[in-house]
Design brief:
Layout (H helix, E strand, L loop, with lengths): L1 H40 L5 H29 L5 H28 L23 E3 L6 E3 H19 L9 H24 L4 H5 L7 H19 L15 H20 L7 H29 L4 H15 L8 H26 L7 H19 L15 H33 L6 H6 L1 H6 L8
Antiparallel strand pairs: 1-2
Helix pairs in contact: 2-3, 2-4, 2-8, 3-4, 3-5, 4-5, 4-7, 5-7, 5-13, 7-12, 7-13, 8-9, 8-10, 9-10, 9-11, 10-11, 10-12, 11-12, 12-13
């Protein structure tokens, strides 16, 4: 009897449970196809695009170390060689840490502000192996980690570019501290304004494919302000201050050209035709600028120099950067031919006229080349000139004015904030070394070692 009652009770419990679970089961059966459909609709990173971005990221690192370090190192006197290598290396390493702590969030944190990315991605919060970043094509994404790293190399390289303007007299601690402050209050906001979908200049329709405003105008203006505020090298205009190794300068310049393919083509974010166009333009504009600088020197000085060829190489790379995936190949050649005479004029005439000591011509090449490239992008984007064309309803004149507005905003923001930050750094640690340390050379006085030893 008890056995019969237990069976009956169990059957009743089972019936009740089935009745209670029936809506849950029905909901799950209805939700499963929807979930599967949503999962299928979510874009998945393509392995080819991901690999392409890996390679591009490493190429940009190669631009900084050893490329930029050797380029600048060859341009200074032998007693300051290691100081420049150290500044480029440590500034770059410092910026990598700053970038993952708060720089990525300040630039691309998802804020709707036109000037600031926000705090949502501090310490890379929410960035995982499964999170993705959008590209320029609908439905195409790449892993967010590789996007973060690619942008990190830009953030590491740009402050290091400034170092060349006040090389041979800046305190090591001042160079590093200024780089952190400058990136925080200049680079990250400008990067957000130009490259984030909510950014001020992005919303205006300003074109900057790979960093004409964000990297080169920014670094050039900050370098000019720094060269003036740090002051001239002791003995400038009297002592011989020729580059100690044009061999290393050319090696560094060649490494920069090589790495620049990652810089420009990688900014396409996909292994597609846009990346190939950026590669073509990076070849052609640079080659044209090398030849153009040699011609200008031959006409003005009677001889073409290796320093001129290397300078033309960098000028061409700078000029084509904002237009790399936008202009056509013939437009890139014209940009390369035109930028060298302009930069040469600033390096050989304007600098001497105003008397500022820009050691590695950061303003004359990166700043002026960046101005020219950003404005020329507005012209050579025209489909009539072989470019990819303007947005609907935008004319060449309209685009040019947008580019000019972006350039002016970048110059004003960078110039004013940089001047303030140099003052802050000077108050905290002091900007330049003593005259005695400068005469001895920063290699020994700041780092206790020498680049070269004679037996």
């Amino acid at each position: 009897m008890s056995s019969f009652n237990l069976s009956t009770s169990l059957r009743r419990v089972g019936a009740i449970a089935a009745a209670l679970l029936a809506p849950v089961v029905a909901f799950a059966q209805e939700a499963a196809p929807a979930a599967a459909e949503a999962a299928a609709a979510a874009p998945v990173p393509d392995k080819a695009d991901t690999t392409f971005m890996f390679v591009s990221t490493l190429l940009v690192l190669f631009m900084l170390i050893p490329g930029l370090a050797l380029f600048y190192g060859g341009l200074v006197r032998a007693k300051n060689m290691l100081s420049v290598l150290m500044q480029c290396t440590v500034v770059g390493a410092t910026m990598m840490i700053v970038w993952v702590i708060y720089g990525y969030s300040f630039a691309f944190g998802g804020s709707e502000s036109a000037y600031f990315g926000g705090f949502a991605k501090l310490f890379l919060a929410g960035v995982t192996v499964d999170s993705t970043a959008a590209t320029f094509s609908d439905g195409v994404v790449i892993p967010e980690y590789i996007f973060m790293l690619f942008q990190m190399t830009f953030a590491a390289l740009t402050p290091a570019l400034i170092v060349g303007a006040f090389a041979e007299r800046i305190k090591f601690s001042a160079a590093v501290l200024f780089s952190v402050l400058w990136a925080t209050f200049v680079y990250f906001p400008i990067a957000h304004m130009v490259w984030d979908a909510n950014g001020l200049l992005f919303g205006m329709g300003a074109l900057d494919f790979a960093g004409g405003t964000v990297v080169h105008i920014n670094a050039g203006v900050a370098g000019l302000v720094g060269a003036i505020m740090v002051g001239k090298r002791t003995g400038y205009g009297r002592d011989m201050m020729a580059p100690h190794s044009m061999t290393l300068t050319l090696v560094g310049a060649a490494m920069l050209w090589f790495g620049w393919f990652g810089f420009n083509a990688g900014s396409n974010l996909e292994a597609s035709g846009g990346a190939v166009l950026a590669t073509v333009n990076t070849f052609l504009a640079t080659a044209a600028a090398v030849l153009s600088w040699c011609v200008v020197e031959t006409l003005t000085r009677g001889k073409a120099s290796m320093l001129g060829a290397a300078s033309g190489m960098i000028a061409g790379l700078v000029a084509v950067t904002p237009a790399a995936g936008i202009a056509g190949p013939m437009g890139a050649i014209i940009m390369g031919l035109a930028v060298s005479p302009l930069c040469y004029f600033f390096v050989s005439v304007i600098k001497n006229k105003f008397g500022y000591d820009d050691t590695a011509d950061v303003f004359g090449v990166h700043g002026v080349g960046g101005f020219f490239g950003a404005l020329a992008t507005g012209i050579f984007a025209s489909s009539a000139l072989g470019g990819i064309g303007y947005a609907d309803g935008v004319s060449m004149g309209g685009q040019f004015m947008t580019q000019l507005t972006a350039v002016v905003i970048t110059i004003v923001w960078c110039g004013i904030v940089s001047a303030i930050l140099y003052k802050v750094v000077d108050a905290i640690v002091g900007l330049r070394v003593t005259v005695e340390a400068e005469r001895e050379g920063l290699d020994l006085s700041s780092h206790g070692e020498a680049a070269y030893h004679t037996s």
